[in-house]
Design goal:
By secondary structure, this protein is an alpha+beta fold. 25% of the residues lie in helices and 25% in strands. It is built from 2 helices and 4 strands. Strands 1-2-3-4 form a 4-stranded antiparallel beta sheet. Strand 3 and strand 4 form a beta hairpin. The radius of gyration is 12 Å and the shape is globular. The N and C termini lie far apart (37 Å).
Length: 65
């Protein structure tokens, strides 16, 4: 079983409100797992690649300000 390789955004301000994603499962699972960086043992949400891509595009464009 392949394990997620977690990373935080380089824009993270380390203020405790971060999420981590694991892009290494895109090719094999077609999903992007996401978790709360404050609760590493907590639940993981798996998003379809397209949905996660739309979310990232929205963040970059300021849609969620």
């Amino acid at each position: 079983m392949e394990t997620p390789s977690w990373f935080k955004s380089s824009c993270s301000d380390n203020g405790g409100v971060c999420v981590e994603a694991a892009a290494n499962l895109i090719a094999t699972h077609g999903t992007v797992p996401v978790r709360d960086s404050k609760n590493l043992a907590g639940p993981v949400l798996d998003f379809p690649v397209a949905a996660f891509g739309h979310f990232v595009s929205g963040v970059k464009s300021g849609k969620f300000n």
